[in-house]
């Protein structure tokens, strides 16, 4: 059932629209129409939107919702500029091993150089569906921690972890 979209503010309504095709319903996740949820990623060195001491804890979700995510390790095999994107980003291609194969994504990780990214082992959510960004199809979400200003710091893995390993 969930929350009717007509009672949401515009930012939350946009999140609803983006999540609905993936079977995610804000109402089922326990969000209220006015709860501050992350609707888009932004880098802002003045407002520091991701300062840990100012972020509220998100509502609980069931274990089934978490375990429905397919989070895997992968190795970056290609990095290209993405001048068509509204925000600075790279087009990256990642090999997620023999079961998933190679997937592409747009990633706001320009704090890393092309050389720093090539061959790097990363973590990605591979079953969120496809999203069009400036005419480019993004097929997974690369995962990282956010600095207070929104800069993404990619997750690092121990030596010996290979492409395709599931992340729990």
Describe the structure.
The protein is of the alpha+beta class. The protein is built from 4 helices and 9 strands, in the order H-H-E-E-H-E-H-E-E-E-E-E-E. The strands form 3 sheets. A 5-stranded antiparallel β-sheet has the order 3-2-1-4-7. A two-stranded antiparallel sheet has the order 5-6. A two-stranded antiparallel ribbon has the order 8-9. The longest helix has 10 residues, at 10-19. The two termini are 29 Å apart. Residues 1-8 and 25-38 have low confidence and may be disordered.
Brief write-up:
With about 170 residues, the protein is of the alpha+beta class.
Annotate the secondary structure layout:
Layout: H1 10-19, H2 63-67, E1 71-81, E2 90-95, H3 97-100, E3 102-107, H4 114-117, E4 121-125, E5 131-133, E6 136-138, E7 141-142, E8 144-146, E9 152-154
Antiparallel strand pairs: 1-2, 1-4, 2-3, 4-7, 5-6, 8-9
Q: CATH-wise, what's the superfamily of the largest domain?
A: Nucleic acid-binding proteins
Relative strand content: 25-35%
Tally of alpha and pi helices: 4
Which ranges are low-confidence, i.e. pLDDT below 50, for 5 or more consecutive residues?
1-8, 25-38
Number of domains: 2
The total strand number stands at 9
Label the structural class.
Answer: alpha+beta
CATH class wording of the largest domain = Mainly Beta
How can the largest sheet be summarized? 5 strands, antiparallel
